[in-house]
Specification:
Length: 384
């Protein structure tokens, strides 16, 4: 379609953002060849990440395995500014499909989703960035973990994932803001780059344990427990609240992502790939690199220095980061829309009691025993 369109418009070059993932690179090669056959060049630009994945390397030309060393080296290289906008851009808005037009095909849940539909487009993303840098960023270092309070984080991940805004634009604007909050915000953008650098180094990151030792760990596969987790019916309030938020809105607070990941992989001893696939189905900010890195980081099989034996306690996390229970009430309330948006085939009944899939203490003890057995087989220094 693209080569035909380029020929119809009589253009000599097609410019696009390079999306440096293995499958996508292969697709770009095919597009390059198809365009070249019609005398059109495909010009790919960096900018999906702050620095091209693979550009930040250690003294022995190796990829970094630890975030802090990666971040230091990336900052030392210097983050390029955003490319200038083209002097002239003739464009016509593509005919979009309004959610209301899609609703009849969705059968159910459209009204619920409409209430959470994000404002799409570059202008909206730039406005969100301005608003965040104007004031909330100053409290970001502490407020970023408060799941009950809106505005603690920028809410830009979806715009970044779909390319509505570039990370270099965000970096340049945030660097001009003094203070600890802005510094923390910049370091988070570097986590995203770290994930892409890991994916460039290990294209199988979304499929294989980053640390092959973990192939020996007895992860359980998909099954009734994982299904209970997917349906947000684990009986653990913070876990269910997070999974319901994601199902209805397509997003979930970072702190809650860590808690639901830990619950699945540690309390339920279920393979991180089962959870990562569900995030892939549900998240509007889904990103192959960030999703895989974070799932593995929490599960214990991943890069960086996260101690693999850490088991998040969802009750303590809730007490700390949702102290008055506002977040849990919002998403556990039958009026949250979850029961209307959820699949009818799941047979969910808001009035039916939800029994915990496993007690928190029992799940923790079982996980610690499995992790200790695993740990005794690992080389020293595994967790650092
Ligand atoms: C299990 C798990 C799965 C995740 N899957 C994804 C995913 O598929 N796509 C995705 O974009 N993020 C993912 N994240 C990271 C993080 O949760 C989201 O980027 C964050 O919730 C976005 O909110 P924000 O834009 O308000 O973040 P802010 O706090 O405002 O941060 C600014 C930006 O920094 C980046 N960032 C922040 N934290 C991280 C992180 N831990 N890893 C990588 N980049 C980060 C994001 O691009 C984010 O937009 C995952 C985290 C976990 C624990």
């Amino acid at each position: 379609m693209l080569p035909a369109l380029a020929a119809e418009l009589g253009v000599a070059e097609v410019h696009a953002l390079a999306w440096p993932e293995a499958g996508r690179l292969a697709a770009d090669t095919r597009t390059t060849e198809a365009l070249a056959a019609r005398g059109v060049a495909l010009v790919l630009h960096d900018g999906h990440t702050l620095l091209p994945p693979g550009a930040v390397r250690g003294a022995q030309d190796q990829a970094f395995k630890v975030y802090s060393a990666f971040a230091r080296a990336a900052r030392a290289l210097g983050i390029p500014g955003p490319a200038p906008a083209p002097a002239r851009l003739d464009w016509r808005p593509a005919p979009g499909e309004a959610l209301a037009d899609l609703a009849p095909d969705m059968r159910r849940g459209a009204a619920v989703l409409a209430a959470h539909a994000p404002e799409a487009g570059e202008r909206a993303a730039l406005r969100r960035l301005d608003q965040f840098l104007d004031r909330p960023v100053q409290d970001h270092a502490t407020a970023r973990d408060r799941i009950d309070l809106p505005g603690g984080t920028s809410g830009l991940s979806e715009a970044l994932a779909v390319g509505e805004i570039g990370p270099r634009t965000i970096w340049a604007a945030a660097r001009a803001v003094p203070g600890r909050g802005a510094e923390k915000f910049l370091s988070e953008l570097l986590w995203r780059d770290f994930a892409w650098a890991l994916l460039a180094d290990r294209p199988d990151l979304p499929r294989a344990n980053y640390r092959p030792d973990w192939d020996r760990f007895g992860w359980q596969g998909d099954g009734p427990q994982a299904e209970g987790w997917r349906r947000a019916m684990t009986g653990i309030p913070l876990v269910d609240a997070g999974l319901r938020e994601m199902f209805v809105t397509g997003t979930m607070h970072n702190r809650v992502r860590m808690v639901v990941d830990s619950f699945l992989t540690k309390h339920l001893l279920t393979d991180w790939r089962v959870g990562a696939a569900w995030f892939d189905d549900c998240l509007t900010d889904w990103d192959p690199a960030s999703n895989a890195m974070n799932w593995q980081w929490v599960a214990g099989s991943g890069p960086d220095a996260a101690p693999y034996f850490r088991v998040f306690n969802p009750a303590l996390q809730a007490e700390k980061f949702d102290p008055a229970g506002a977040y849990r009430r919002r998403w556990l309330d039958p009026a949250s829309g979850y029961f209307e948006a959820g699949s009818r085939a799941w047979g969910l009944d808001p009035a039916a009691p939800v029994r915990p899939l496993i007690g928190l203490a029992e799940g923790r003890a079982r996980a610690r025993a499995a992790l200790a057995a695993m740990g005794s087989t690992l080389a020293p220094g595994h967790d650092g």
